[in-house]
Structure prediction request, 355 residues.
Amino acid sequence: MRIGIIAPPWYPVPPWGYGGTEGMIDVLARGIMAAGHDVCLFTTADSTCPVPRLHLLPEGLGVAAMADETAELTHLDAAYSHLDDCDVIHDHTLLGPAVQSASCPVVTTVHGPIDTRTRQFLATYPGNVLPTAISHSQRGLAPSGSFSAVVHHGIDMRHWPVGSGSGGYLLFLGRMSPDKGVDAAITVARRAGMPLRIAARIRGPEEKRYFIEAVRPRLGGTVEFLGEVGPGERLALLGEATALLNPLRWSEPFGLVMIEALAVGTPVVTTRWGSSPEIVSHGLTGHLAATTSGLVDGCRLAASLDRDECRASAVERFSAERMVEEYLDLYRSALHPGPGVDLRGSGATAVVGDG
Ligand code: UDP
Prediction:
């Protein structure tokens, strides 16, 4: 198959640090090429993903540009016209399938939350578009029949070796947002009596304000802020942590940080929001809690969990190979829908139809 992948124009693929969507696209594009297919990734020129690439924009535009759709529209115009000869287009933007038309099937992965804007887009996509959710939780928040399939993200396990877990600290890894619960992580760590390291990107004025008002005044002592970290530091931090502390306050569609932690053998202590219960097995690979006290208890118990169990669960459920196979099945189904296969409402878990 010839598969055209469209990345959003905000960050390069892969990103240097923060960037769940671009990280996932990197793994997918490499995996599809390794599986013997013809891939073309439409991204920005500063991307380094080692597959054939095309671009219009010289570099990722950054989040400030998200407010203005013009640049994204220009990027998408160029992407759809350059990928016209593909068998399938896999679009990772919400806007693309709504404003562009393609002569081939379009699989689109919805990476963001199910808000009003997303619902509107999902309702307007033409019949050759197969929207894919990244967790059952995300799918459940959309009107019934909106999604063709659920495909959990996967990561390349070769790049995430098991760490020692001997650092004696909790790690927060993500974005400086109240939704991600950075302030809650500080409260939990202090109550658990455990050191906390915070690695996070501060994105835009709202996150800056949150940092200044709710996080910075509480730093110091055993709570350390490291800023945004790149791949090497991230791996070391995750591998040596006693647990990843992920006290979400929102229905996050999929938390890549949780599968990265499990891959390196680090248990995850998190709230029961969004995709968390689909990723973490309570009492086995981490702790799912509904309250601050529950999170505190989870942190105290984390060191007694079996790190090999965490790794095994990641390898079995969140490998790049599994994700790539499921998307390839989806592309095949999109190209050759079987009789009676309802592409929009199949209720399939990961794969639509059997091609
Ligand atoms: N990340 C990073 N450096 C940081 C903070 C985050 O490399 O300082 C990475 C993290 O390892 C993960 C991604 O950014 O790969 C965040 O993805 P996730 O799905 O967890 O969060 P979202 O994209 O939904 O905000």
Summary: The longest helix spans residues 320-335. Residues 2-156+320-335 form a domain with the Rossmann fold fold (CATH 3.40.50.2000). Confidence is low (pLDDT under 50) at residues 340-355.
